[in-house]
Design goal:
This protein is α/β, with parallel strands linked by helices. It is built from 11 helices and 15 strands. A 6-stranded antiparallel beta sheet has the order 2-1-4-5-6-7, covered by helices on one side. A 6-stranded mixed beta sheet has the order 8-12-13-3-14-15, with helices on both faces. Strand 1 and strand 2 form a beta hairpin. The radius of gyration is 22 Å and the shape is globular.
Length: 368
């Protein structure tokens, strides 16, 4: 799948842009704050109906303007072409359309145009809270399995209702029954999908990490969940008294986590910045392969400043990974260092572009 072109109006710091993309590698060169990441964010918006970070929709509109619009044409592996547009006017709800027809629910769009993105904040996947890792699992699996997203939405609604009852001091178990039945049903679906995902992705991450690190380190990921050893009903029943004191649901799939290790030691507590970055990149590339296999569609791959905090040998090994035309399709790479980008483009025989980014404006360059 490729994104053939994009039109942008008043999106973040980009006042106006019309860009044609190479079906191969697209490199974006520019200093920080010039708009490279915002272009990737616009692409992410078209694919996932939301920006990369959790910010209010109102923040997507360029300061001082009343509306924004992002529109792009996707060319799928089945040779179909679809125009996706996402617009927002101040005081109104965000609009998402496919070939001019508005979606009734944004969830109907998720997974149609799969995307994988690596950002400078990816080290938080390891070093951050469990919420970061749950969001990652949910985003990836939702792209591969629409039933998972439906179950997740229903679980979160039931969880919110249960927490409201706990805060209100409700004690009668019968009043909790219908809510907890939904949590039990959807919790089992979510747990099964997450467990299967970790089992599939783990060996792929280990293989890619080993190649990037030059074979010097071995990594492993494990899925941590109360439901590994009990049903959702058993978990809720055993924590009921505690939850009534706390006023919230203290256990369930909303507390799941991923544990990563390096040579048998916790990567989170002992990993260096370079090791955390290497793991994050390896995980993203493994996710790419997972989605490609599950969907039968080659996802877009967006790599935002991935070479920061990595030594020269790891940069070279990542370049070997992402420039393998047999595995990857369309790639977008940003960097502040032209040499990094020219080195990548020099080993690519297929289609490629280099674009300079400055103050939200985009200018084609000739690779050296």
């Amino acid at each position: 799948m490729t994104l053939d072109n994009i039109e942008i109006l008043n999106f973040k710091n980009i006042p106006s842009a019309k860009l044609e993309f190479s079906p191969g590698v697209n490199c974006l060169l520019g200093m920080n704050g010039m708009g490279k990441s915002n272009l990737l964010d616009a692409i992410h918006l078209l694919s996932m109906a939301r920006p990369m970070s959790s910010i209010p929709d109102s923040s997507l509109v360029k300061h001082g303007e009343d509306l924004m619009l992002v529109k792009g044409e996707f060319h799928t592996d089945s040779d179909a072409k679809d125009t996706i547009s996402c617009g927002l006017a101040k005081g109104k709800r965000k609009s998402l359309k496919r070939n001019g027809k508005e979606y009734a629910k944004f969830s109907e769009h998720i997974g149609s145009y799969p995307i994988v993105i690596s950002t400078p904040d990816d080290s938080r996947i390891v070093s951050g809270s469990g919420e970061e890792r749950r969001k990652l699992m949910d985003m990836v699996i939702s792209q591969a399995d629409p039933t998972y997203l439906s179950a997740l939405i229903r679980y979160n609604r039931a969880l919110e209702n249960r927490n409201k009852m706990l805060r209100a001091g409700v004690k009668d178990p019968i009043l909790y029954e219908s809510i907890e039945n939904t949590m039990e049903e959807t919790g089992a679906i979510i747990h099964s999908a997450r467990k299967e995902w970790v089992e599939k992705i783990g060996p792929i991450v280990a293989q890619i990490y080993e190649r990037i690190s030059g074979g010097h380190e071995k990594t492993e990921i494990k899925y941590k969940s109360k439901l590994n050893d009990a049903t959702m009903k058993e978990v809720l029943d055993s924590h009921r008294a505690k939850d009534q004191v706390l006023g919230f649901t203290s256990a369930g799939i909303h507390r799941d986590d991923i544990e990563s290790s390096l040579d048998g030691y916790s990567l989170r507590t002992l990993g260096s910045q370079g090791q955390l970055k290497t793991f994050a990149v390896a995980l993203r590339l493994a996710i790419f392969r997972y989605l490609k296999q599950q969907k039968g569609i080659t996802p877009l791959l967006l790599l935002d400043d991935i070479f920061d905090k990595l030594d020269a040998s790891r940069v070279e090994n990542i370049m070997k990974e992402v420039t393998n035309a047999e595995d990857f399709g369309q790639i977008f790479i940003t960097d502040t260092n032209r040499k990094h980008l020219d080195d990548i483009l020099s080993v690519i025989n297929g289609p490629k572009t280099l674009i300079n980014v400055s103050e939200g404006e985009f200018t084609p360059l000739t690779p050296e």
